[in-house]
Amino acid sequence: MPKHPEQSEKRHGEPVLIEDGSLMVDGRELRVRISARRRRIGLTVERDRSLTVHVPRGCEVRRLEEFVRGSSAWIDGKTRLSEDRRQLHPVRTLQDGEIHRYLGRDYRLLVVEGEESPGPEDGTGTPPVRLVAGRLCVNRSIAGDPVRVRKALADWYARAGQRWTRGRLQPWAARMDVPEPQIQVRDLGHRWGSYRAGPGNGVISLHWAAFQLPIHLVDYVIAHELAHVRIAGHGPDYWRLLGRALPECRQVKKELDELGRRVWMGDLLAGQESDGA
Ligand SMILES: [Zn+2]
User: Fold this and answer.
1) What is the pTM of this model?
2) In this structure, which of 86, 172, 198, 262 has its CB flanked by the most CB atoms within 10 Å?
3) Angle at 12 between CA 9 and CA 17, to 5 degrees
4) pLDDT tens digit string along 150-167?
5) SS3 of residue 40 by DSSP
6) Helix, strand or coil for residue 110?
């Protein structure tokens, strides 16, 4: 915690700021940074929503307090804005009983003995994660290793998402009168989807984590990227095309922004990550 700025120096009987520190004004704590070159007071809201005031050396405490009080509406607006944009992605432990989502529905993780029956996916053996009777079943062979479960879950979302999207793409493409591109599901960092033009009709990539979202939001991501097959960028033509297929697209996008920042992106509780992840 920074110490209080030195206020002992007096000039015209008023306390002035001569050292960096922190100051409380009307219940707000501010980090004080003094700069000899500065002539005016400046205020910044940091990423963690804390406040820093930059003040000229010798600035009177009262002048600073008045400045902060006068900026109160601005501070509220700024901190609210960053609150709205704050990412709230949960961390998971990937233990038995934990709730996971697929297409907006809740499924509990269930650790099961991995029998050697062919998996429902492609017959290449029992996949380490599968959806059976409303449970997301994880083989006991990997259940003790969150990093392996994370990878197996991401792979499961990717496969399930890919299969699901196959049935979804054609109707959307037809509705938008756009030729069907290839589909890939993988990790896209912090984007839900992307489109790359190329041979054939190009490739749409979707984030595996997007398939935790409710169906209408996954549909939005698909339609959003499909519109890029025809129009690059997000100009008026783009929104016109998307809006014809999905009139409520602006509203749905807002919902995606809101729900999307609460989606599990694969983060594990600290201490459980490893280089192999
Ligand atoms: Zn876009």
Assistant:
1) 0.69
2) 172
3) 35
4) 999 999 999 999 999 999
5) coil
6) strand
For 183-213, what is each residue's pLDDT tens digit?
999 999 989 999 999 999 999 999 999 999 9
Q: What separation in Å is there between the alpha carbon of 227 and the centre of ligand 1?
A: 8
Burial (0-12, 13-18, 19+ Cβ within 10 Å), 38: middle
Spacing, Cα 194 to ligand 1 middle (Å): 7
Structural domains of the chain, ranges and CATH numbers in brackets:
10-85 (no CATH), 99-260 (3.30.2010.10)
Whole-number Å distance, alpha carbon 155 to ligand 1 midpoint, is 25
How remote is the CA of residue 268 from the centroid of ligand 1, in Å? 29
73 CA → ligand 1 middle, Å: 33
**CA quadruple 232, 235, 238, 242: dihedral sign:** positive
Q: Which residue has the tokens 């990539």?
A: 205
Backbone angles phi, psi at 124, to 5 degrees: -90, 15
State in Å: Cα 178 to ligand 1 middle: 15
C-alpha 228 to ligand 1 mean position (Å): 7
Q: How many angstroms is it from 195 CA to the middle of ligand 1?
A: 8
Structure tokens at 271: 């201490």
